[in-house]
Amino acid sequence: MNLRAEAPPTASLRRFGRATRWVHRTTAVLMLTCLVTAACLYVPQLAELVGRRELVVRIHEWAGLALPVPLLAGLASRALRADLGRLNRFGPHDRRWLRAVLHRDRTPGSRPAAKFNAGQKIYASWIAGATLVMLATGLMMWFTQLTPLMWRTSATFVHDWLALTIGIVLAGHIGMALADPEARRGMRTGSVSREWAEREHSLWRP
User: Fold this and answer.
1) What tens digit of pLDDT does each residue of 123-155 get?
2) DSSP per residue over the chain, as a string?
3) pTM of the model
4) pLDDT tens, 146-203?
């Protein structure tokens, strides 16, 4: 008797490998460090509470410089590279997913998604582009001798307002994560339930 063939299927699916989870966690810590230190620099009440402005500036600068490092290091992982490829592809089912969201259509099957849905793809692309802009403008502000005053003034304007936008978008991202315990479990442990995967990512074939 073949006991292996008769064994029931596992109730969970592997969603993220160790490298992907490590990149997500370290990037999140660095991004939150940038936002918290920025708030301490620009909100007078927080600045008075924290003090030591020079130290806060240095932490902010080095956390910003380190932001791309986890992803660059994680590119050594084949699984992470595969996930980035999936995030970079937008298909007909993604357009259908967006239409359903815009029309608030929650009927079964109205929001088809593969491993990542259209919202996750748009968020990933936006946050990656925003991070590059923040890094470029931050370097202009840091190395003042390399750029004209007009460039530095424009960079400061873009850096400050984009930082506020990133804070709002990240708050939405965290709010959506808090509303979906199974998605958080997938990023925390690497595994999700088969039922959740079939319901939320019906086109995903692990």
Assistant:
1) 999 999 999 999 999 999 888 888 888 888 999
2) --HHHHSPPPSEEE---HHHHHHHHHHHHHHHHHHHHHHHHH-HHHHHHH--HHHHHHHHHHHHHHTTHHHHHHTT-HHHHHHHHHHT---HHHHHHHHHHHTT--STTSS--SSS-HHHHHHHHHHHHHHHHHHHHHHHHH-GGGS-HHHHHHHHHHHHHHHHHHHHHHHHHHHHHHT-HHHHHHHHHSEEEHHHHHHH-TT---
3) 0.86
4) 888 888 899 999 999 999 999 999 999 999 999 999 999 999 999 999 999 999 999 9
